[in-house]
Amino acid sequence: MKFKTNAIRFLFISILGVLLHFTYEWSDDNRIVGLFSAVNESTWEHLKLLFFPMLLLTLVELFFFHEKMPANYLWARTLGILSGMIFIVAVFYTLNGILGTNYDWINIALYFAGVIFALFVENDVYRNGKAEKLILSSAILLLLTAAFFTFTEYPPQLGIFQ
């Protein structure tokens, strides 16, 4: 994809993700808003800040530009989302282990790095992937959406959800 397209995607995802960090509190803890926004400071809830903006961007791009999208668009986006989320979790816990503490400025930078990584992987799959995998992509995105909704209401007693 072109640099301009990626820059617009980066800005869309990043701005919406930053806003989603605050929308739950701004909505006076509305449960519906909480399904899409971070409801606490857990790692899991912060993954929503990458997932839902990228999912919304996917829906917008498919609605308005589906005829211009490569055949492997949804598969590339799905792999980008998964890669960005894994990158954030892996680097977050690695840095916390190394530094022994948590710095907000590092977490913010990590979020933006995760968005860039997600778009990088997505673009790599566009260029090198041939498979459409429409059903698998859709199933993964639906499963992740259901997991975010479920674990927001009923978080397991695991560190990533605390």
TrEMBL record:
Keyword Transmembrane in record = yes
> What domain of life does the UniProt record list for this protein's source?
Bacteria
Tell me the InterPro entries matching this sequence.
DUF6512 (IPR045407)
- Tell me which UniProt keywords the record has, alphabetically: Membrane, Transmembrane, Transmembrane helix
* Keyword ATP-binding set for record: no
Q: Which residues cross the membrane?
A: 7-27, 47-66, 78-99, 105-122, 134-152
Q: What's the protein called, per UniProt?
A: DUF6512 family protein
| Native source species | Coprococcus hominis
